[in-house]
Amino acid sequence: MAGRPLAYCMLFFVVPFYTLRPNIRRRSAEYRRRRFGDRGALGQFVDCFKLHMEFGKMLVDRAVMGILGQFSLDASPEDFQTLVDLAAQGRGLILITGHVGCWQLGMSVLNKIDGPKAIVMYNNRKDVDKHYYEHDDGNEHPGFSIIDPRSAMGGTLEMMTVLKQAGLLCIMGDRSFGSTKNVVDVDFMGGTIPLPISAYKLASNLNVPIVVTFSHRTGAGYGRIWISRVIDVPENMGRNAQIYQPYAQCFAKGLEEFTEHHPWQFYNFYNMWEKEE
After folding, report:
1. pLDDT tens, residue by residue, 180-199
2. Residue 105 burial by Cβ neighbours in a 10 Å radius (0-12, 13-18, 19+)
3. What's the distance, Cα to Cα, between the start and end of the chain in Å?
4. How many other C-beta atoms are found inside a 10 Å radius of the C-beta of residue 277?
5. How far from 8 is each of 53, 61, 79, 219, 221, CA to CA, in Å?
6. Is Acyltransferase among the key words of this record (predicted)?
7. Digit-coded pLDDT (tens) for 100-122
8. Is the distance from CB of 39 to CB of 108 less than 8 angstroms?
9. How far lies 134's CA from each of 103, 104, 164, 245, in Å?
10. How far apart are CA 188 and CA 261, in angstroms?
11. Helix extents (H) in 207-263
C-alpha cells in the first residue's frame, strides 16, 4: 500500500514549512538547548527539523492505525508478564507515561489486559490532529474510556471507580494542564519543572501499584513499549503534595532517561522550565 510511504514523503514539504516559522521553533527551543546544547543557528534548525519530522511520522502512523488498524507494538515477554501479574493482584493498576514516542499507539497494549480501562486525557479543542481512535467513526473509543481532567474534581471520582473495579488507569505524568494544585517541582535536564502528583495520591489512597512505561517508534508502523520502573507508594500518606515529590522525581528520572536514548521523540512543545526565567 502506498498510503503510508506517500504520507511520509509529504512530510518533506510540510515539516520545512513549520520549521521555518520562528514562533513554531520557539516551542521546542528550550528542550533542544538543554538536550543538544547551543549548536548555532544552522544546528538548531536541523535539530528542530528532525524533531518535527519524527513527530510527523508519529502522526502518520497514528492515522494509519486509526483507519486501517496497522501498527505493530513490541514488548518484551518479561515486561508484559509484569503487567499481567500486577493486574492479576486485583487492586487495580496505574500506568504513567508521557508525551513521548508513540504514546497513544502504545496504549493499545491495554487491550491485552483484562478488566475495565480508562485513559486520563485532555482534548484541546484547538488541536487539529486526531487521536488514532477518532479516525474510525464506528469505533470511537476502542477498549477504553476517556476521563477529562478538566471535569468535576479533575475526574478523580471516575479514576477511583476504574481502580476500585480492579481496572487499569493510564495517566500522563508530564503535564499539569495549567493547574498549580497537586503539583510539585522536580529536577529535570538540569533545571526544575512542575509535575502533577494526582496519580501518586490515588495510588496511596487505594493501595494501587504504579507502572512507569514509555514507548518509542522504531520504524514505519512499528514501535516498542517497555516498563521503566514500578513504584509502590505507601498507603495513606495524606494530602500534603510535597510528600509525593520523590515519586514524581522518580518519573522525571525515567523521562530524562528516555530523552537520552530517543531525543527526537520528545513531544512537549512548550517551555517546561519557563518559570525559571
Report:
1. 678 999 999 999 999 999 99
2. buried
3. 49
4. 6
5. 9, 9, 31, 12, 11
6. yes
7. 998 877 666 677 777 888 988 87
8. no
9. 15, 12, 28, 35
10. 15
11. 245-261
